[in-house]
Amino acid sequence: MSHRAEAPRLLINARMVKEKDRARARELRRLMVYGAAILVPLLAYVWQRVDFLKISYQVEALKKERQGLQEENKHLGVERSFLMSPDRIERMARRELGLVDPSPADVRRVSVIDGRINQVQARSGSPRGGSRDAAGAAAADGGGEAEPGHIEAGLGIIPGVGTVRQTHPDDTTRP
Asked: Cα(134)–Cα(138) distance, rounded to whole angstroms?
């Protein structure tokens, strides 16, 4: 019999409506607000800290890369200085290209004023003729300095190159 008596009691309890406890709900809301007030700044701090560490690693990597590039730049500067050395260039021109110093007849004095060539004089003994002034003669002979603005320029000579061949209109051979 006890079995029958329990079944109707369950049905009676099912029909009962439980009232909401307003004080308990208010306390739960207050707990959620306090928890959020503590948790949000804590999460913001953790996020900033992680972001700071990530950026710190990036900065360190960039510093290492910069240092490597600076060292490479130094090495390239040394290599450039070696490659641009006038002595090395002259040796290569003489050995590999077969260049020789120009004859004194091929050297001319050029006067440069304001970036423009104003006067061209041939050295004495030149097949093209011309005359030298006193300062030019002293500079050419090595006895003094040339006037400011004067530059000596020579034509490089490659042996066996630049020979002129006379051709006739009825000549069928090509150089």
From this structure: 6
pTM confidence score: 0.42
CA 92 to CA 99: how far, in whole Å?
Answer: 9
On the 0-12 / 13-18 / 19+ scale of CB atoms within 10 A, 121 is middle
Token pair, residue 116, equals: 């423009």
* Boundaries of every domain in the chain: 21-84, 100-153
Q: Can you read off the two tokens belonging to residue 121?
A: 């004089």
For residues 123 and 136, what is the distance between their CA atoms, to the nearest angstrom? 9
Judged by DSSP in three states, 30 sits in helix
Q: State how far the Cα of 131 lies from the Cα of 104, in Å rounded to an integer.
A: 14
Q: How far is CA 119 from the centre of its chain?
A: 41
Rg (CA), the chain: 49
**Parallel, antiparallel or unpaired: strands 150-153 and 116-122:** unpaired
74-131 pLDDT, tens digit per residue, is 999 999 999 999 999 999 999 999 999 888 888 887 888 877 776 665 555 444 444 4
